[in-house]
Amino acid sequence: MILLQTPRLTLRRLLPGDLDALAALYADEETRRHFPHGTRTRAQTQEELEWHLHGHPDDPRLGLWAAVERSSGAFLGRCGLLPWILDGVDEIEVAYLIDRSRWGQGLATEAAQGIVDHAHHTLGIDRLIAVIKHGNTASARVAEKLGMHHERDYRHPAGLCWLYARNR
Ligand SMILES: CC(C)(COP(=O)(O)OP(=O)(O)OC[C@H]1O[C@@H](n2cnc3c(N)ncnc32)[C@H](O)[C@@H]1OP(=O)(O)O)[C@@H](O)C(=O)NCCC(=O)NCCS
Asked: Which of 21, 86, 143, 155 is deepest in the core (most CB within 10 A)?
């Protein structure tokens, strides 16, 4: 199921056949450097993929989606919208992760901008956040390019994070 398209990308629901490509991204130490649990095994990746196959179980409009290159069909990353409860407040996060071989080409910004528009205008979600581990400056830059601002710090059990946010 296609959620949205951008000039270079199709964002669609994850499929079982994405496991090899997703597991390769999740096994890469540099890509997973700023995630609380670091790299993921194939089994852990499969568990996460299956969790998102039909949209997020708590809200099927949300979830992690495949970012596929329109011109080649290549699996370039996974992006989407994730529901969290932070300090007792319901929040929705814009999530993005791109294949390291394609960093610096504007793909995360393009995907995330499409997601922001989809969230605001199709789903009617007013407020979006990004929770970014201190030091993940590339991710913070993407958040800034989405029109998010640093609202406060957030103390995640795995370490201090920047909380970026934007309202429609
Ligand atoms: C963060 C990530 C998604 C960015 O993907 P990308 O496709 O390279 O991003 P874009 O090309 O759209 O934009 C990156 C921006 O960050 C900047 N940037 C890249 N590396 C940077 C760094 N180390 N420090 C500061 N800025 C950096 C780029 O210059 C660019 O900004 P610019 O257009 O003003 O020059 C990618 O690095 C990634 O997948 N990281 C691992 C997963 C991750 O950390 N996801 C976020 C979790 S909160």
From this structure: 143
